[in-house]
Amino acid sequence: MSLNLHPMVNVAVKAARAAGSLINRAALDIESVRVSQKKANDFVTEVDQAAEAVIIETLLQAYPGHGILAEESGNQHGARDSEFVWIIDPLDGTTNFIHGLPTYCVSIALAVRGKVEQAVVYDPTRNDLFTATKGRGAFLNDRRLRVSKRTQLKESLVSTGFPYREGDDFDQYLVMMGEVMRRTAGLRRPGAAALDLAYVAAGYTDAFFEKGLQPWDVAAGSLLVTEAGGLVGNFSGESDFLDQQECMAGNPRVYGQLVGVLGKYSKFASAGDKAAVRQSTLTMRPAAKQEADAPADTDAAPETDAAPL
């Protein structure tokens, strides 16, 4: 079957494949790739920058009047006042890439007046191309995508992302993950949010949640999910999530149940829910801190052999 892709998606596919070729070539010799650190545990490579440059060049050649919002260069390129803005993550999963773990992708979305209407997520390691146009469905290569049909959270496989930046509330995330783990068939952390969302759209996983994400992490993947029949929002279940740094997605039944679990961890939760979450976090923190801070018992008597029988 040959897909009749929207012209703007065709251009984005061309850009994503060009970036993917750069990434695949670099992956053949990871040790020679120059890596720098934007913040603690937040890396960028020369490959990110080269891939972003080729994507921007391809898009602006076709649509010189469009705006650009890219992970590495922000809105330095393109028109500043356009209603059409391309949202780009040239290499989502950089940490995986620099360690040779083949779970990363190129993510390109087009927002029109703030609403995502076109999406491409390309996995160059598997040559998997996810595409979506608003109102036309989502596809993996030539196959139409639908979210999973599971109806119970307890039967579901859920993906997430762990906090890794200085200042992230690790303890609260541990409490939150513990709640999800007790209620599901499994929790996974692949390390590339755009692929996580694409996999929800494909039905490989039943839901996804993560805090601290930027628009370029979730823009393309979110359209894949909704065009595959799923739901995307913040932890409270509200659909206006793109700039809120919290994202949850899933098939409709599992999504609704996950709101009941994660809603109290949302920045939009009630004061009572936020207080309960703080208390849960404080309850677990002293025990972990006490164990970590406990000095070694250097004065303990040495073990002796047991008395002979």
Automatic annotation (TrEMBL):
* Highest taxon of source: Bacteria
Q: Which PROSITE patterns match?
A: IMP_1, IMP_2
What's the cofactor?
A: Mg(2+)
Does the entry feature the keyword Coiled coil, yes or no? no
Residues that, per the record, bind Mg(2+): E71, D89, L91, D92, D217
Q: Which lineage is the organism of this entry classified under, starting from the top rank?
A: Bacteria, Pseudomonadati, Pseudomonadota, Betaproteobacteria, Burkholderiales
Return the protein name.
Inositol-1-monophosphatase
Q: Which Pfam families match?
A: Inositol_P (PF00459)
Residue ranges for the region (Disordered) are 279-309
Report the source organism. Answer: Rhodoferax lacus
GO MF, one term, reads: metal ion binding
